[in-house]
Amino acid sequence: MLLDAIRTLIAPRKNDTAPSAGPPEVDPIHLAACALLLEIAYADGEFSEPERAHLDSVLARHFGLPAESGRRLIELADTERRKSIDHFRFTSILQSGYTLGQKMVLAEVMWGLVLADGKIAEHEQYLTRKIANLLELEPGYLSAAKAAASESHEGEEGRRAANE
């Protein structure tokens, strides 16, 4: 028995760096991107209603997910996010599965999430830069993504004010 316990400790493990895919219909790239977006949403200690609305919109618009599938993806991604010890397990999936253009869109979505609640917490800004670095995005790309997200955010605020 002691020998079996020792073998269990030193035996090679299955690849622990990839998130578990959950149900077969969940795309691992969607799961990884959503987990990182949730990391950013929770970076200031709160996943606010405007951030949730922004994420729901992103999942529908960019991933083509209906509301119920989006909610399920958020649940699965949140579980994976909480189990993870680092961001590499998610960024490595996106690094190999996304083109430069898709990474730039993700960076814009990340900034949109940061801006969604109307305030930029220091840790949100740091985490966005860290994830962009892990995705090997140049600082200029990140600046362009922030500017685009800011313009989009201002446009949304203007439309909301006009409707009130």
Describe the structure.
With 164 residues, the protein is mainly α. It has one domain: TerB-like (Orthogonal Bundle). The protein is built from eight helices and no strands. The longest helix is centred in the C-terminal third of the chain and has 25 residues, at 139-163. The protein is globular. The termini are far apart.
Task: Describe the structure in brief.
The chain has helices spanning 2-10, 28-42, 49-63, 67-83, 88-97, 100-115, 122-134, 139-163. It is mainly alpha-helical. It has one domain (25-163): TerB-like.
CATH H-level superfamily: TerB-like
- End-to-end separation in angstroms reads 70 Å
Radius of gyration: 18 Å
Q: How many structural domains in the coordinates?
A: 1
Helical content stands at over 70%
Q: Would you give the CATH topology?
A: TerB-like
The run of helices and strands is: HHHHHHHH
Structural class: mainly alpha
**Residue-averaged pLDDT, rounded?**
81
* CATH class descriptor name: Mainly Alpha
Strand portion = under 5%
Describe the global form: globular
- Tell me what the CATH architecture is: Orthogonal Bundle
- Helices, by number, come to 8
* Total strands: 0
- Low-confidence regions: 1-22, 158-164
Largest sheet: none
Topology diagram in text:
Blueprint: H1 2-10, H2 28-42, H3 49-63, H4 67-83, H5 88-97, H6 100-115, H7 122-134, H8 139-163
Helix pairs in contact: 2-3, 2-4, 2-5, 2-6, 2-7, 3-6, 6-7, 6-8
